[in-house]
Amino acid sequence: MRKAFWGLPVALIVLWLLSGCTDTLHKQRAAPLQGPAQTAFTINNNTALIQSLEINLTGKQSKDKVSLYAEQSTDGLPLAWYLVVNGLAKVKLTAEDLYSFAEVRFADLDGDGRAEALLFRQSSGSAGARGLNIYQTAGQHWQELFSVNQDTVTNDKRYAVTYIGNYCVAFEDKETGLTGIIRLNESRYRGSEHMLPDITAWIDPIIDYSLADYNQDGIKEIVTIQRVIGIAHADTIGLLKTTYQLKGNRYQAVTLTLCDSNDTPLAEVKLI
Ligand SMILES: [Ca+2]
Ligand SMILES: [Ca+2]
Questions:
Q1: Among the residues of 22-126, which ranges form H helices?
Q2: Class of the 39-146 domain?
């Protein structure tokens, strides 16, 4: 009994001496409790709150507080995006495709009644490139369901876009074998017909994502949209659409479709 009585105060004094000062002890006690798989998010001088919202993710009565933070360089460029739920970091995005702006939205894509987190990013450039990562919100660690790495510059080794005369352009994607003929609207090129033979492969990065249950199986597909450019950047002559379907725990690209500028499909290849 006597040993146990003295044991606790002695241990506290030793801890106090090891820590060097009472202030450190206070900070250690004030830190949030951490489970093995949870990371408490700390705000510092380099983090900026971009967006904050409340949504019921856990199924409990009270709503969860979701915050989107940017870790920024001294000139304000994002170095990382964080999604934080009730003070715990669930997502840290530091890879390529950070873009300049970000926004989080929630939608139930797989039809299980639980919202997935959609982390959109947007560039400030003229192409209006957009990035999207999607996460399942169940469990301590959010599972990534969808992400796409894209070239921000035209990969002219992959695509061939050639004017073949008579207001027609031949399109070829050498990687997937997708080929098609894009018929141009003659009236758009009055006075600039001489520029048509100069059309070369110029495919913009993804500018938008369409999320809808196209095949009506209860699970939303994701369609990424890229512009096929004609004689100038303002001249969209076609659209390149990649359709992703949820296969197990991951969205996979299933088809690549070439459409004309009115969104009419011209040609399609299967990707799996
Ligand atoms: Ca869901
Ligand atoms: Ca579907």
A1: 22-30
A2: mainly beta
